[in-house]
Amino acid sequence: MNHGKTRQINFYNIDDKFYFVDLPGYGYSKMSKEEQVRTGRFIEEYLNICKNISLIVFLIDIRHNPTENDKLMYDYIVKNNIPAIVICNKADKIAITKVDNAVKDIQRILNPLKDLVFLPFSAERKIYSDKVWEEIEKNI
Ligand SMILES: Nc1nc2c(ncn2[C@@H]2O[C@H](COP(=O)(O)OP(=O)(O)OP(=O)(O)O)[C@@H](O)[C@H]2O)c(=O)[nH]1
Ligand SMILES: [Mg+2]
Known about the structure:
It contains 4 helices and 5 strands, in the order ββαβαβαβα. The protein is an alpha/beta fold.
């Protein structure tokens, strides 16, 4: 299995100030359709039940155009008026000169109104993290 492994909800206590809540991914191509549907319902149920979400950090891969599931997720966030930022992860995987345009392309597809913050990020290289923290701190 070479895709991510979050199959449960993990809570990370950050200095007793807030929690990072890590939800499973729903869209990986190696996941069966059935598993995608099950995971999608699981995520939706959590978001419905949890009334005190400060911010959704919506992580997508900078190398790929958003999928239909990403669009559904995005529409759900907008319809329910939940604060969110979109983080285009794995920025280390593309040339640094292409990062800004890749983020813009993703924003154009997912958020043509441009009323949500989209930022590049790399969990691997820990680059671009200052702006991400700035946005998180604005919302906690
Ligand atoms: N190069 C690079 N690899 C990354 C980055 N972020 C995650 N990965 C790799 O991608 C793989 C999956 O990472 P996870 O963090 O488990 O992915 P996930 O999106 O949480 O997956 P699910 O939990 O299934 O939703 C791992 O091998 C990570 O090392 C990044 O910014 N750059
Ligand atoms: Mg995960």
